[in-house]
Amino acid sequence: MRRAAEPLCGGRLTTRACATGGARRTVQPVSRHWTARVRRRAAGPVALVTLLVSALAGLAACRDAPTQPVRIRIATGSPTAVYHAFGQSLATILNRELPGVQASVVVTAASAQNVRLVGSGEAELGFTQADVLPPDSAEHPAVLAVARVYDDLLHLVTTAGGPVRTLADLRGRRVSVGADGSGTEITATRLLEVAQLGGDQIRKEHLGLDDSVAALSAGRIDAFFFSGGLPVRGVANLADSTAIRLIDLGDWVEPLRRGYGQVYVTRDVPRSVYGVEPVSTVANPNYLVVRADLPEPLVREVTRLLMERREELAAAHPAAGRMSPRSAIATTPLPLHPGATDWYRATKP
């Protein structure tokens, strides 16, 4: 049975603080110099805390000193998107179960911005669609994978009484293709290109999910794209107040695969999700990614909690319940972080 982590400096994993009075307590992001000082393996929370604390100098003097908990920023998406719900639940779990870690979520434009934030060290974890990642990701690993978490499905949403019934009907109309820097924007733009609707064939708006919902409700746009795990809360809320239609995109999966690679697959949106006619659509995997320089014991513990607390994560959003260790390791083109690899190998049946 795994023992509870022993408290250090008031129950928190700390960086060194000044032993004199009056110092201000600050939260530190995980620093790069840990990488060379932390041993490779940690069997559980006690070992994690022991290894990380031993990597930090001067802890003997910290009993009466202000503490500096380790910050883990999780780059998510808009407040009504799956990334945000998933990230909030994950942050709650990390805060509760990893002493000395202070996790929080960051609202972003989603995938592409999340990858940039993690790669630049402005976030420690983030969610991204697979098609956002460049094919040569393995050659420049500033960002590594923790797990494949679930599939994103591309939604094309319009009003039930409107003129848009097929993808071709978007020609000349006002359409939100997703926020700048989002995975939605990338997938939707590729889809429009293979459908010969690129360039000025439609009147593009670049709106996030919440703004897209508001604009469609107000009649300022004719349709919007959004890519997310089922159900997307913003789309579900819209369907509760407005008669909507989802446009079938299943016929465009093969053209996308020919043009942009095998990452795209066909998935169904059943009637039970939003209470509208079922459709087939374009889907691609979603990954939880991490800074490559995060210590292996810490990433191992994040991976463990991600897998062992699936029921709790699924309570925040059903998409999280689709994770499994078997599917989690399929993160092409992004390599797994060594800490994640350690956990998967240690728990392999």
UniProtKB/TrEMBL annotation:
Record's keyword terms, sorted: Membrane, Transmembrane, Transmembrane helix
Xref: Gene3D superfamilies: Periplasmic binding protein-like II
Keyword Membrane among UniProt keywords: yes
Keyword Iron included in the entry's annotation: no
Parts of the chain that traverse the membrane: 42-61
One Pfam family named in its UniProt record: NMT1_3
Protein name stated in the entry: TRAP transporter solute receptor, TAXI family
